[in-house]
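[retry 2/3] M48 family metallopeptidase: previous attempt timed out, resubmitting with same input.
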Amino acid sequence: MNAALRAALSVAMLIGFYVLGVVQLAVAGFLLYEIWTHLSGTGAAKLSWLVIVGFGAVAVGLWKALRTKPGEPEGLLLTPQHAPDLWRLVGDMAVAAGTRAPDEIRLVPEVNAAVTEDTKLLGLAAGTRRLYLGVPLLQTFTIDQLKSVIGHELGHYSGSHTRLAAVTYRGRLALRETLSRVGRFNVAGWVFKAYGWLFLIVSNAVTRRQELEADEVSVRVAGVDAATSAMREIPVVAAAWNFYFGRYIAYGWEQGFAPDDVFGGFRHLYYARAAELARMRAEEPDSETSRWDTHPSTGERIAAMRALPAMRHPADDRSATILFSDLHRAGLALQGEVVDFGDRQVLPWPQFTAAAMGKQMQNRADRVFRSAARLTGVPESGLSEIFGLVAAGRLGELAVEFFPQNSRAEAPALFADIMEDLIALAALHSNVVHWQHSWSEPARLVDNWGHPADLTEVAKLAVAPETLDLALARIHHAGVDIQAARVVEAKATATGADVIGLMANVKVDGQETDLILLSRGFLFVPAPKDKDKGEERIGRMLASNDVAELARTYRFVPFEEVVGTQVHKAVPINAELRLHSGTTITLKESYTGDTVGDSRDTLADVLRQLGERANRA
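[retry 2/3] M48 family metallopeptidase: success.
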């Protein structure tokens, strides 16, 4: 079956989806008529309610999909005046591809390129064409690689793949909206689910064929070498992009800081990590494709490209950045369009790294300081109180909380790594050391002469009573004030915590509660007694709220506040949490509540670990 017939079938199935919805609504109307014709009173009302619930989800989903319109175009609009060389290149590629050039070019913060077309009359009338180019591709690609990517996207125009994009968008939206509202036990929804799966199989086969057709245009206008090079480079750039945001931006962003050049730093990292990226390029691309994939695998696409007739093209290995008079300025303009800094402190990269690493170090220390305060009975503690525990031979009482698998006699030696961080914090606040930013390796703590700070030996001395005085002498000699390291957040928060489990309608102290299990504690959110669609309810909440903000709004119980656990029943879970404050919290799992993935096992494991920690202490 060729691509045109597949596309026609895909559109026909979309129409069929709406027809199926109308038929089901007609059936619902007929059932309601029959119910009230032959029954009356409470029985008719109950049956009618079942029909309305069963078929109402279908109606709501279809109605929302029909009313929803695609959003406004994203990204930074690049006019011919902003990037004349890029526009010239795109125009030349459009001629080579045998299609009309796009009306707009937009810069987007993604490792991707895409085209859209605002069509009318189900794709019969052409409309505004837009080409989207990801800034990381422009930062890292050669001219040849960029030609290949642009040629591929223009191939979607020449193959008329974008003409039905709006129809397909609405169809997929209708499917998603309708199926998301159909419960597991809704008989009316079973037909839609089966139809939806069939539609996705057919439509995904269409898009995979269209990608291969667009690849043919890419090879024709840019050459097989450029096309395969770009295809192999995209996963490398994507991995570097994810690493950049995950390791360089996210941790500081969560701490309330932001770099002043969000996108510009990526190019520095990309070239600084050349050796690591070269190893990724040497790996063979994935060659497996699933029926649920919208794109063929990279290996399959490369093999198909190499099987095409060879086309001679002059090589151009110059950087694609030359197509801009100032790509850095364009990146800053894009940043202004798409990045919301909120109330974060915006800093140049070196200061951003230093501030973020310092805050992260303080957060880790605060966790230790809070435990030390509980142990010593003081409102707030710092490094000096911990040294007091060492001198009194009580460090094991504190250390066992962090190393629950070890005894009080064994734990102090393991605490040396934590002690090193605490001493380093005091040195940082004493201006003896500072954090040094680097694109080629992780940030590191260095002294005022740029040498790596080495506090390992002094930390080992500081965890034993018999060598504590020697450690203190060395710390003082280095100019470090131990009073400079003290708690900042005396109460634990959920800042930077990850979601590790979701359980809807758990009974917490007898009340219906949604349990959001975080990597730092339990988040309890009041829940309705209706246990239907609990997973969807929690999902919406997490999609629109930061967990740290939720923890400030609802009841958050950090793991560090739990002094012990007792599991009365394993299935369903019936357990108690005992807190340092003397409070007891009861948790009772419900058979009818929604549990996401392995969340129940995760909760059981957390309860076990907390219990073991308490037993060790």
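[retry 2/3] M48 family metallopeptidase: Residues 14 and 171 are 6 Å apart (CA to CA).
[retry 2/3] clearing retry counter.
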